[in-house]
From TrEMBL:
PANTHER family (alphabetical): CARBAMATE KINASE (PTHR30409), CARBAMATE KINASE-RELATED (PTHR30409:SF1)
Protein name (Swiss-Prot/TrEMBL): Carbamate kinase
Pathway membership: Metabolic intermediate metabolism; carbamoyl phosphate degradation; CO(2) and NH(3) from carbamoyl phosphate: step 1/1
Start and end residues of each Aspartate/glutamate/uridylate kinase domain: 6-286
NCBIfam families: arcC (TIGR00746), PRK12352.1 (NF009007)
Family in the record: Belongs to the carbamate kinase family.
InterPro entries: AceGlu_kinase-like_sf, Asp/Glu/Uridylate_kinase, Carb_kinase
Any GO CC annotation of this UniProt entry: cytosol
Catalytic activity field: hydrogencarbonate + NH4(+) + ATP = carbamoyl phosphate + ADP + H2O + H(+)
Source superkingdom: Bacteria
Molecular function GO terms recorded: carbamate kinase activity
Protein species of origin: Qiania dongpingensis
Pfam family, one: AA_kinase
Length: 314
């Protein structure tokens, strides 16, 4: 009998990819080893990634260029997201290709420039919530607010960051192309940085000023590819309740109902752990047998074997 391989969508956190080119190269190599371990386990893997630090860096660099050359208009955030997909996809694609070849696979690796449609009237456009760029002190954040008009917020106890609108993904424009590539055996990197945000008016797609959360875009991609597992890799091994407090408790398992309860209690920081738990719960509730896992990159293999991470299931 034909047994389909376990199909896994792996979402890599933007913060884990480092903030310089050399850090990113190193992280991509390390990430590739972890992903090819899962291929060795017989899994079919689709990769998505965040871009928070990187898209902030690109946006700052482009803004500095337009200040320096007054004829250069400011670069829209949608274009900065597109640049971040290429910047990160290039390193991941090559690192994966190399690791696969070293282990005797000739699997083609393809990065798909992915546009994701958002709704123009999404209320998220009115209240920026997605942290991007580097972490700042309170004083630096106040300076950035004054000098550049950025909206700044404290990010999960780690310092201040610029925040931008983060509407929910409604449709993956290149979905048919991604599905064809996956079905024909490519290891696909898609929905980078949550996808290039676009709105649609008849045949025309226009870039939107936003950064989509890659956890929500990954959930949509995993549902549409009929994946069995959504793995969200980040900087913590497990999800905690009472995070950072004396009674902090790390969770091995959360049902969708538990997740909803903890979300209502405000246990997860918006812009960091909250979207991960929301996306994981949404995926786990979309069809019986679908599970999601949140863990550290290094623990991905142990996680799918059930020995660590926080499993989110029905
Ligand atoms: N309840 C929680 N449990 C675990 N981590 C949490 C919690 N709330 C906030 N965090 C923080 O969220 C971080 C993960 O979010 P973030 O770094 O924004 O994600 P990404 O990996 O997608 O870049 C963790 O490293 C941790 O500092
Ligand atoms: N776009 C996005 O979700 O990026 P991070 O994973 O860096 O937050």
């Amino acid at each position: 009998m034909f047994m389909r391989k376990k199909r896994i969508v792996i979402a890599l956190g933007g913060n884990a990819l480092g903030s310089t080119l050399s850090e990113q190269r190193k992280a991509a190599g390390h990430t590739a080893r972890v992903i090819v371990d899962l291929v060795d386990e017989g899994c079919e893997v689709i990769v998505t990634h965040g871009n928070g630090p990187q898209v902030g860096m690109i946006s700052n660099a482009m803004a500095a260029l337009s200040r320096e050359r007054s004829e250069q208009p400011n670069t829209p955030l949608s274009v900065c997201v597109a640049m971040s997909q290429a910047y990160i996809g290039y390193d991941l694609q090559n690192a994966l290709r190399e690791e696969l070849r070293l282990r005797g696979y000739d699997t083609p690796v393809t990065t798909m420039m992915t546009q994701v449609r958002v709704n123009e009237d999404d209320p998220a456009f009115l209240s920026p919530s997605k942290p991007i760029g580097h972490f700042m002190t309170k004083k630096q954040a106040e300076e950035a607010e004054k000098q550049y008009g950025y909206v700044m917020k404290e990010d999960a106890g780690r310092g201040y960051r610029r925040v931008v609108a983060s509407p929910r993904p409604a449709e993956i424009i290149e979905m048919d192309a991604i599905r064809s590539l996956v079905d024909s055996g490519h290891l696909v990197i898609a929905c980078g940085g949550g996808g290039i945000p676009v709105t649609r008016c008849e045949a025309r797609l226009s870039g939107a000023s936003a950064v989509i959360d890659k956890d929500f875009a990954s959930c949509l991609l995993a549902e549409q590819l009929d994946a069995d597992f959504l793995i969200i890799l980040t900087a913590v091994e497990k999800v905690a309740i009472n995070f950072g407090k004396q009674n902090e408790t790390w969770l091995d398992r959360m049902t969708v109902k538990d997740a909803e309860h903890y979300i209502r209690e405000g246990q997860f920081a918006p812009g960091s752990m909250l979207p991960k738990v929301q996306a994981a719960a949404e995926f786990a509730s979309s069809r019986p047998g679908r599970n999601a896992l949140i863990t550290l990159l290094e623990k991905a293999r142990d996680g799918i074997c059930g020995t660590t991470g926080t499993l989110i299931c029905q």
